[in-house]
Amino acid sequence: MGIDEIRETMDSCKHCFMCRHACPTFLTTKLDSHTPRGYALMMAEVDAGKLRWAGSVADRFYQCSQCGLCRQDCAYHWAEDDLVRHGREEIVAAGAAPARIREIADRLMKTGTPVEGGSGIPAVMRDKIGAKGAEVLYVAGWAARREAPETIEAMAKIFDSLKVTWCCMEDEGCGIELLELGYAGEARRQAAAFVKRVAKIAPKRIVSSCPHLCRALREQHGLLGIDPPSMPVLHTAEFLAVELEAGRLSIGGGRREAVGYHDPCQLGRKLGIFDEPRRVIAAAIGAPPLELYHSREAAECCGAGSVMLTTEPDLAADVARRRLEGARNEGVRTLVTACGNCKTLMRRALEGDGSGMEVLDIAELAAASLRS
Amino acid sequence: MNRSDFTVEILRYELESIVGADHVVTDEAEMEAQALDVWWVTRFWRFSDNDFPKPFAIVFPETAEQVSRVVRFCNEHRIACVPRGGGAGDSGGASPIRGGVVLDMKRMDRIVSLNERSLTVRVQTGIIQKHLEEYLNRKGYTMNHFPASFTTSTLGGFISTNGTGVLSSKYGKMIDMVHQLEVVLPSGRIFKSLPVRLHSTGPDYSRLFFGAEGTLGIVTEALCKIHPLPQKRLFRGFLLPGLAEGVEAGRRIMVNGLQPSLMRLYDEKDTGHILTKQFGVDAQGCVMLVGFDGRGRVVDAQYEDAREILEAAGARDLGEDPGKNWWEGRYKSYYPPNDYIAYPWMTAVTDTVAPYEDIERIYHEMRRAVEEGFAQWGAQFHAHFSHWYDWGASFYPTFLLKEYPEDTREAMRLYNRILDAAARASVDNGGVINEHHGIGLRSGRLMRLIYGERYDLAVDIKRALDTQNIMNPGKLGLGD
Question: Whose CA, among A155, B172, B199, B351, lies 20 to 30 Å from A291?
C-alpha cells in the first residue's frame, strides 16, 4: 500500500513534464498541481517530510479522474494513475481525506453508492431484483439507475427481444469506488460481499452497462485478493456485439447523421474494448461513427471517472464541457458513449448550453434501431 | 517580498479584482508544483532539502488587457512580475527569485484566426505547442516547430527563448516563424508590432522580444507562419568516417542551396551510443541523419543531390530506418528514464553556433575543456550538430558527471565551473553560446563574457523600458 509500491514511478514522474498536454484536469484548470508531475512531486515531498497530506495537497489528489491518458501518452507507460490511487491510500491512512471524500466514502460503505439517497430502483428493474434462474445478471451501475434509467429500459427491451431472461441486484456496490478513493480495506470487504451475492444468483453471464464494474470484476478485484467470478463478465457493448455477430440481435435502420463515439476510459484505454461498440453503432445507424481526433487509446476523459462525478461535480462538468466542445467542433451532433457515468456527466454539462447536442448510451441507440 | 499577511491579503484582493478570485492561486499544492523546472541546479537544490523561492501569488490571466492591468499593478507596488509558460525550462528562467507575482499564461490559449491564403495563424501565446500543432494538422497545416518540449511548453515560452526545433535547418528559429507580436510592456502598455516584419520602416522592434525571456515585457499574442502538411517526408541515415567528413558534407549540402529539414550529425561518442543501442551495430564513425520534406518530386531531387555529397565524403548508407525511427520516436528520450540526462547525474547543454571556419575547432576545444579540465570528476562530453545554415552550424554539446561533491554548494560551484569553461572555449574560438533553452539564471553571468561591452546596450534598453526592474528580475544577466 502507499508510496512504497509506487516509488519508482514517483521518482521518475516527479522530473517529467512530457505528458501534461494530455491531462484532462490540467487542461481545464491549468494548474501544475493537477498534472502527473505535480502529483509525483507532491508525493515525493510528503515522503521526504517536507509536505503534509493536508489542505490543497490532499484536495488535488482527489481531482484526478485516473483516466490513464498520461500513462498512455508516456513513452514508458509509467503508472501515474496508480500513483494517485496510492497517494489516496496514504491520505486516508493519515486521516487527511477531505471532508467531502469522507462523507462520500461513508455513503459508499453504507449504501454501495456515492450519492445521497442511494441509486434507487427504476420501475423497469423492480420485478427483476433477485429473480431466480435468470440467464443474465444485469448490473446497470448507480449512475444509470439514478440518472439515466432510459439506459436500463433500453437493455430490458433488448433482453426481451433476444428472449434472454435477466435479473438485477438491489445492492450493486462492488468496492471499486472505495478502492479508487483510497479505502482499500473497505473496498475489499465490499468486493467480497458482492462476489458472494453473485455466486448466490449464479447467472450464466454478467452483463453490465458500467465499465468501472466490468474492470473491477475482471482486473481490480484481483488487486484486493478477490477471485474473479466464474461466469463471463461482459460490458453491454460486448454483449450487443456478440449477439449481433451470432445473428440473434437484429438492428438497423436507425440512421442518424453526425454520430460520434466517446470511448469511456475504463472500457477503452483500460479494458481495450474499442471495436465492439463501433460495430454495434455501425449496425444501428448503417455507417461507422465519426472518429474523434482523440479517440480509442488516446480518447480524452469526460471527467467522470474515479468518482469525480460525485466528489468534484463542478470540475468534472468543466472537463466534460471541454470534451463535448471538441466533439462538436468535429461535427458531432449525437455523441454515443457506453458508460453511465460519462452519460450522466456529459448530459449535465450540456444543460442549458443551447447546442442541441445529444448524448446517448449505446444501449439506447441499439434499442431504438431494433428490428421487430 | 517581505510584506505582512495583511498586506498580502490586500494585494491578493486587488489581483482577484483583475482576473477573478478563481484565477489567483496561493495554495501550497500549486506553489510546490511550480517550484521546479528541469534545470539540474534547480532540481539538485530542491532535492537536497532546500527551499526554493516562491511568489506570493500565481495569477492566471485570460486576455492581454488583464495582463496589462496585472503588470500596472506590479509597477504601482514595485512587485516582481515573472511570466511563466510551461515552466519546463532548464535555466531557472521562470523562477521567481524575488518572489512577487507569477503570471501563468496557460489560460491564454485561444486560437484567434487562421488565414489559409497568407498561411498564418493568430494565437494567444499560452497555448501548448502540441495543441497548436494538432489544430493545424486537422486543417492540413503544420508550424514545423518540433523542439524537445513540444508536448509541454507554450508558444510564448518558445518565443521568449527564441527556441529552435529539430527541423530548424529548413524552417528556422522562432524568430523566423513569427510575423507579428503583441507584447505587454513593463509599463502596462500593449505594444503590437507591424503586421509584417520584412519592412524597411525603421527597425523591426519586435526583435527585442525574441529571446528576452520576459525581461522586457510579456508576449501575449503572435501571428505565426504555417505550412501545408508535407506531401512527403523522407529520412535516411548515413555513417561517415569521422566528424570532419560529416561537418564538411553538411556544409556542402547547405552552401549548395539544398534544404534538408533535418540534418543531425552525431559525434563519435553519441554515434557509438546510438548505433549500439538502437541498431545493434558496432561500427566506428559518425552517424548523420538527413531528412527532406515537401512536394514529392522536390524531396526526391534534393535527397539525390545530398546523397551524392554524402557518398563523396565516404558515407555509408544505413537505409531509412535510422532516420525514420528517430523521427517517430523523437520525444522518447525525454521521458524518464532519460539514459543520457537522468537525474541525479549532473548535466548541462552548452549550445554553440559559429561559422564553418570555426565550428569544428570550437567543438574540439570545448570537449577538451570539459573532459581534460574536469578529468578528476570523470567528465564526459558528447554532442551532435543539429542546426545548419549556409554560413555555419550549431552544435549541441552535453556534459555529464556521474559523481560530484556531496556538499550542495560545492556541487553547484563545480557545475558552474564546467559551464564557464565550456562557454569560454566557445567564445575564445569565435563561437556564440546559443542558449535556445533559455539564459535565465543559469547563463546570465555569461552574457558579459559573450557580449563584452556590447551588453551595455541591452542594459540601457532594459532600464528604459522597465524603469522599476519588475519584469522577471535577475534573468539574462540584467541585474536583480
Answer: A155
